[in-house]
Amino acid sequence: MPVTAIVQITTQLLAADPPKDFMTCTLHYQSDLATVADADFQNMANTTKTIWFATGGAYQHYGTNGGYVNVYNLADPHPRPQRGHASYTPTTWATDVSYPRQICLCVSFYSQRNIKRNRGRIYTPTNPAWGGTGGRPSQAVRDQGISLLKTLGQNLRTQTPVWFHVVYSPTDASSKTVTNYWCNDVWDIQRRRAPKETTRSLGVP
């Protein structure tokens, strides 16, 4: 049976952010082999870090933010041990967040048919490269979000073992190869990512 890897990518937007404000996206990839060595999982973590935390490229990236990548084998029993880990600290940190932290770009994907158990999504963290404060993400921003996952998938498919981006359904314990990506022209909201209040203004009638 092919090995399915869980890839968790955690992004730290600003150097002073506490761990509770870090943002995590989870992806699944399936190998073309039934046995995968820890060194291969580590290579997967390194490749993911290089793409996600790039400082340039025609895709969304977080090179002025920090973070880390953890890779797990889905077949391992809980609590799963880390099979790969790669961390990133930028040379120059971003000093501000252009959008509220709870605003994100949802990049969705599916296998063959856009139906339940065949689709998934990630909510990419606030990104300084989005620019401006417009009411909708531009075509360029949406394309960059899609290109992030496509570029990551293309790089992982060049490795040994070959990794394919999949939709994993825990309901039927199946992995289906992703065939399509899409991104709508509306921002999504992850309320759990919003900062906690620190003060309150009061008024009386």
Walk me through this protein's architecture.
With 205 residues, the protein is of the alpha+beta class. It has one domain. 16% of the residues lie in helices and 30% in strands. The protein is built from two helices and ten strands. It has helices at 38-52, 139-156; strands spanning 4-12, 23-31, 66-73, 84-88, 103-110, 119-124, 163-169, 174-177, 180-182, 188-189. A six-stranded antiparallel β-sheet has the order 4-3-1-2-7-8, covered by helices on one side. Strands 5, 6, 9 and 10 form a four-stranded antiparallel β-sheet that branches. Strand 7 (163-169) and strand 8 (174-177) form a beta hairpin. Helix 1 (38-52) packs antiparallel against helix 2 (139-156). The longest helix has 18 residues, at 139-156. The chain is globular, with a radius of gyration of 18 Å.
In short:
With about 200 residues, this protein is an alpha+beta fold. The chain is about 15% helix and about 30% strand. The chain has one domain.
User: What is the overall pLDDT average?
Assistant: 94
Shape: globular
What structural category characterises the helix and strand content? Answer: alpha+beta
Strand content range:
25-35%
- The amount of helix comes to 10-25%
Low-confidence stretches: none
The order of strands across the largest sheet is: 4-3-1-2-7-8
H-E order = EEHEEEEHEEEE
Number of strands: 10
Main sheet summary = 6 strands, antiparallel
- What is the number of helices? 2
Radius of gyration: 18 Å
Summed up, the domain count is 1
Distance between the termini: 68 Å
